[in-house]
Specification:
The complex is a heterodimer of chains A (about 500) and B (about 525). Chain A is of the alpha+beta class. Chain A has 15 helices and 17 strands. Chain A folds into three domains: about 220 residues, no CATH class; about 110 residues, no CATH class; about 60 residues, Arc Repressor Mutant, subunit A (Orthogonal Bundle), CATH 1.10.10. Chain A is elongated and about 95 Å long. The chains are: A alpha+beta (about 500), B alpha/beta (about 525).
Amino acid sequence: MTKPYTIIIGLEVHVQLLTRTKLFCRCSTKFGAPPNTQTCQVCIGMPGTLPVMNREAFKLALKTAVALNCEIADFTKWDRKQYYYPDLPKGYQISQYDLPFSHDGWLEIGDPKDRFERKKIGIIRAHLEEDAGKSMHDEVAGQADSRIDLNRAGTPLLEIVSQPDMRSALEAKAYLSELKLLLTYLGVSDCNMQEGSLRVDANINLHVDTPEGKVATPIVEVKNMNSFRAVERAMEYEAGRHYQVWQQTHQRLGDVPKQTRGWDDVANVTRGQRHKEESSDYRYFPDPDLVPVCVSEAQISEARKSLGELPAALRTRLENTHGIKPYDSDVLVSAGRGLVDYFVELAELSGDGKLASNWVQQDVMRTLNEQKIEIDQFRLQPTQLCELLKAIQDGQIDTGRAREVFIEMVASGKSAGEVMEAQGIEKVDESELVELCQELIAANPKIVADIRSGKQQAAGNLIGQAKKKNPNVNPGRLREIVLDLVGKM
Amino acid sequence: MSLVRLSATELLAQLTAGQITSVHLTEAYLGQIKRHDPQVKAFLRVDTQRALDRAAEIDKRRREGRPLGRLAGLPVAIKDLLCTQGEPTTCASRILENFKPPYDATVIARLKAADAVLIGKTNMDEFAMGGSTENSAFQKTANPWDLERIPGGSSGGSAACVAAGMAPMSVGSDTGGSIRQPAGLCGVTGLKPTYGRVSRYGLVAFASSLDQIGPLARTAEDTALLLEVLAGHDPLDSTSVDLPVPKYSATVKQPLKNLRLGLVREHFGEGLDGEVEAAVRQAVAVYESLGATIKDISLPHGKYGVATYYIIAPCEASSNLARYDGVHYGHRTDEKKMAAAIAAQRSTLEAAGKHVEAEALDNPLVRMYRQSRAEGFGPEVKRRIMLGTYALSAGYYDAYYLKALKVRRLIRRDYDQAFGQVDLIAGPVTATTAFKLGEKVDDPLAMYLVDLYTVSANLAGIGGIAFPCGFSEGGLPIGLQLQAPPFEEERLLRAACMFQRATDWHQRWPSMVPA
């Protein structure tokens, strides 16, 4: 169903970088410490203190920007963004304003289910800044008690601002998933939304079809979305709400000030946040306590070298080298580099990418999920699993029984051969199979008649009987023989 | 001769030789403080017991022949904007009246490592904003040469205590002239180093791109000694420069040969007091007699110095002082009274049917910010916060701040060109001698003009030194200022020393200092 409008979405993503220490002091960035235990005179903004840039944070930021195909500025500086809030101890946040260290990049997104065409989402800029502290408001019994935790104050944040290039909630979600995957592969952030190491704000409006052409509706900023799924739902909700508002008011972009709305994850709606009386003026100016940063070509090429194989390239390699479908390469790559490496080894050993992909995606990933472990803790090495796959390829065992063997291998740590032997699994001779089929055909004239009258599924009964007689028979092959013999009657 | 009249260099020699003890010396200065500081009011706090304990400990180490620091046993006074761990650091402001930093400024750590005896914290203009020390929230310091006059500022306490024989040396800070101007008005030697020469870590910021810590003392030789301890790269200050620190005290007595001295044409115009001009020209003649050649030079953009300074400094100050919001430390307004006041205002408005106005009342957080800052800051600080906030606001930034940065570059370029022709620039420190307390308090613009000859060095980031070169008929000191290219502190000190070896202006004392 075509809607009478186009959805326009741009995303602002804040990512905490995985540095050991904060952006401008040596305090730990570790999550979860008791409040205000990871602070010093610098990050709590004591008089006389000065910031000193964490080079590691800049390195990680540079690596990310290069991976996002951004242009890197050879000269960048720090600016103060000034506003009053109790969790901002200096009264300003050190950020980057008019000369961010990187700009004009892109990230390609696609949908494995082909619900939208592959496209490049533009990146306007990525810049570094320090995080603020956390305010906790406790209004129990009207006490209106607010507490401030400054452990987070000064943690390095990378702000990645996209172009308004996304045209659906699905694309927005795909962009976020791809971005998160990229950041994870780069090892620059743990992207944990629950712990706040990845935060998303969205800007959305519509281009509505009218007799006079497309008309842009006012842009709304949506905050407080705590999962990718929440972003998707919030965008869907907002698009619908915008269209309703348009139909009622015909307000265009510029007619009203930009509105900020918060997503309510329980009620599944966005709510208008209290309107600020005047638009905020952050009075940005260059921070005189920090020296500008000059980035050399050597640093950029070093960053480029440190990237490793990125998700997009990895997917293509898996498809081309191992013959798997985009859907499968997407599942594997999204599951992380460790699992991809496992798959590649298994595919190479077994010589069958598709089979390896099926086993990794279904059985291996299910086991990891059940046991809540990572692939490096998984009991079976690719060589061990490959032994089982070989047995399938040789027709020694059918997939159903192989699953049972797999489960036993995981449980006991025994090899495929050992488990199969213990379970008495061995390949049944072709002549033996034919003999068995002839026997069954002779003993079940009614079923044979059914098959002959076209009810092929009736063969299932014979296969069931065969399995009772000899559990090692390959049901697929058995079926072929039965149908063949009946056909010749 | 009274101990307090000896130079730090002589005192150090006597300490090293075992002729005097640090306790004895410290007691001499504490005695002078006790007798005369009630009138001079140079100190905000005198750390009598701690200083004596420290002196005794150093004496003991000396007796035992253990290694000692560069300034072992010498009392040093500290401007009250340098953070001293666990000790009040007020910046002469109500907002930091009860503030005790949890750390030492880098220069304090260096002084402690050099075994200096920190004798007390000196008065200043609140947050270093002013040129007379009258902007202190706590007391007004008097000029030891005339107790009815100002000592200059903002490091007025640091200059006055050295002039009054209450400390042989002191540490100040200079953002637009705050070391040189009071040194000139009090008749002592004060040096503002090149920006980046001394770490600013732990200096409570006024204007970060202009602030620089420096020494005040009796002589160029003593100044060299103290600078040697203060200067050097600090990994905690990104703007401190990683250049080796010359042995200033080893070279300070070597005269400069073939010195080319520049006189800035624009410095000898309207507004310069006749007595000051005569003394400065006399000093230049002394240099000539010592073999210097004099050259007439121009700093054409210098006339924009004060205007440029009063954009840049308040802009940075408005930002640097945002942290004093009553949330984490420093003064916070009485919250109970505040809540009661809001409630009373609300009910009055409601009773009058003014519901919109009642709704628009500050929320408690905003009221707390407003009131804490209103109570904590003095009028000059508020004035500069407003100036800076205005100049950085959307729509004004380009016309004020950005333009000021451009002029600043032109001022630096003037200096670079001038230093192509001369080794040092000589001129007055101030247009007049010390004025009377209260004389300019109602005229902020007149007060801003006291920085006329000093601000350009801060804007250009270069070093300058001030030292006495004469006295007015009324018996007030007149200062000479020398300015040098970046990181040529050694040249400044040698030139000042050369002058002091040929003259005795620096050896004069106000009457309160015993002979």
